[in-house]
Write a structure and sequence with these properties.
about 210 residues; alpha+beta; Ribosomal Protein S4 Delta 41, Chain A, domain 1; Structural Genomics Hypothetical 15.5 Kd Protein In mrcA-pckA Intergenic Region, Chain A; 2 domains; five-stranded antiparallel sheet; 9 helices
């Protein structure tokens, strides 16, 4: 699966905020904490005024980085969202939020979506009692996710849960005692936390 392998903190600096691309984004060692200005060899400089296209492009790039997607993957989600009934921007967010790697990150079983993606590929999780290894699986309301019954894995996830940052969204129910996650409702766009402008993204693909 294609993924971005370059410097992560450089992307946070480019967008002017922490994107949570990796676990280190939530620590004082994050490059954005040390240098709160755009990347480049000449240091801090005034940002130029963006055109309408520039704003749309930055909104798209930001969402791609947050969810860890490449252009082709993101375009497919956009096409699927456009074919569904309702607001295209809300449909896009719901599709991305219902990815298995994102659900695990939201539930606290990964310090970042990248970490959650790696743990899934190592077959640490079951969805409705079926062992899975595909991070892009779309979960549905009523689905149950459980971790592999392994002493070492259980201890690892207990530590990850202790270090989690942020609250669990209302549409995800977490049973930490039994290490189970249940999807109890559809994702609510207003309950996501990130400052994402889906209207600009829709406008970008409507050109």
């Amino acid at each position: 699966m294609a993924r971005y392998l370059g410097p992560k903190c450089k992307k946070c600096r480019r967008e002017g905020e922490k994107l949570g691309i990796r676990a280190r984004c939530n620590s004082p060692k994050c490059g954005y904490v040390k240098r709160r200005y755009g990347p480049g060899q000449h240091g801090p400089k005034r940002s130029p005024k963006m055109s309408e296209y520039g704003l749309q492009l930055r909104a798209k790039q930001k969402m791609k980085l947050i969810y860890g997607l490449m252009e082709r993957q993101f375009s497919r989600y956009m096409d699927k969202a456009d074919r569904q009934t309702g607001a295209t921007g809300d449909n896009l967010l719901k599709l991305l939020e219902r990815r298995l790697d994102n659900v695990l990150y939201r539930a606290g079983y990964g310090k970042s979506r990248n970490m959650a993606r790696q743990l899934i590929s190592h077959r640490h999780f079951y969805v409705n009692s079926v062992r899975v290894k595909t991070p892009s699986i779309q979960v549905e309301v009523g689905d149950e996710i459980a971790i592999r019954d392994n002493e070492k894995a259980v201890k690892f996830f207990e530590q990850v849960l202790k270090e989690r940052v942020g609250d669990t969204p209302s549409w995800i129910e977490v049973d930490e005692k039994n290490n189970k996650i249940k999807i109890v409702a559809e994702p609510v766009p207003t309950d996501l936390g990130e400052n994402l402008n889906t209207q600009l993204i829709v406008e970008f693909y409507s050109r």
